[in-house]
Each structure stands twice: as C-alpha cells, then as structure tokens.
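sorry for the late reply, my laptop died twice this morning and i had to redo everyting from scratch. anyway the thing you sent over, i finally got around to it. pasting the sequence first so we're on the same page, its 226 residues, then the predicted structure underneath. double check i copied it right bc i was rushing
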Amino acid sequence: LKQTERKISLIKQILCHRCFGNGAEPGTKINECFSCRGSGQVQQVKRTVLGSYTTFAVCPECKGEGAKPEKYCNVCKGEGRLKGEEQINILIPAGIDNNQVIEIEGKGDIGKRGGKPGNLYARIFIKEHAVFLRKGDDLYMSQEINYSQAILGDEIDITLLEKTKIILTIPQGSESGKVLRISGKGIPHFGGFGRGDMYVELTIKTPKKISRRQKELLDQLRKEGL
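ok and here's the structure:
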C-alpha cells in the first residue's frame, strides 16, 4: 500500500577484505602484462589457402585485464573477491504486485579484480490478507449486516487496508451478495497516480439464537408478509 524497505541477507561474491579487490597481496606490485603490453589482447596470425589474416583474442596470460599481480592475494587467490554475506536494503515501491521483480543496481556479485558489480533482481511475494482479496489494483472484502440493516438501510463503519475508517451507506432493500463499490480506496497504481477501487460484498447475518422478544417481533412480521 505504501513504499517500504526490507533488509535481506545474501550470500554472494563480495570485495576481498585483504586486497580490496585488486587481487594482489598487500605490499606487492601489479605489473603490466608482458604478453599483451597492457592491452588485454593478443594478435593471432592465421594462414589459409587464400592467404594470411590477423585476428585479436583475449590475452591468455592476464585474461584480458592487461596487468598481473606480482604476487596473488593469499585470501582470494588473485580474484579480488570471495564468497561472503552482505546485508542489503531493498526499497519496495507502493502498489507492487505479487511476483513482480525489482532491480537493485550494483548489488549483485562484485566483479573480478575491481570489475563493475552486477545487479540484483528481487522477486516479490505478497502474503495473503486476512480480510482483503486483491485483484489487480482493486480490493475485495465481505461485510456482514443485520436483516434490519438490509431492509431499512443503514450507515456502517468500514476499516480500510491502511487502518483508517470510512462510512459506508447500505441502500434500503439490499440483498445478500450485493456488491458496493468505494472509488479510489484500493491499491495505489504501480509507478503512476491514483488508486484502484474497493468492493464490499454484503452478507446478511442470520442469528442462531434470538430472544423471546425478537421471536415475537418476527412472528408479527411474518403475519405481515415479511
């Protein structure tokens, strides 16, 4: 219903705490790759019956990085990253629906040797509510009313999803199963303005026990054809 924040714990590739991502043992140098001269690519000459041609490939010595640590980090073995746990805050926007996916930029695995981190994709699952049923951005609920309220009409308090109350007018002569619409009291539209509607289905409550006075009054109503 409103924007909220959730903290999750995730096992992922995190920055190496010893080399801080450069892959080198602290106090040692990172040298330019001798094979590719820092370009990260090497030339390959291929010969065919039609002649020779040159292609470029990733340097096998430095894996395309153009540099190599003089001595690899003892913790991450030169990767600049390792498996670890990270606490991540996920901002969940208002109006999000069940099974939607949120993209959190830069919260995926840390790149190798200081490379750009990937993104995290979180799929949202919404718990069922005890009172309200969601269909799109509309909300549905059931409300019990007395027989007299159905016949004569009434005004009753309805508690909304955000715990506030509004007055719902029950029309005179309402039948069980009648659905009333309350405009703009549903779920906020995701990424937009406005809200869905709320639909209230009326259910006439039949008491299992009645007093002697109530029975007498009902007998009179029956004689009157009600």
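Residues 212-223 form the longest helix (12 residues).
thats about all i looked at so far, will dig more tmrw
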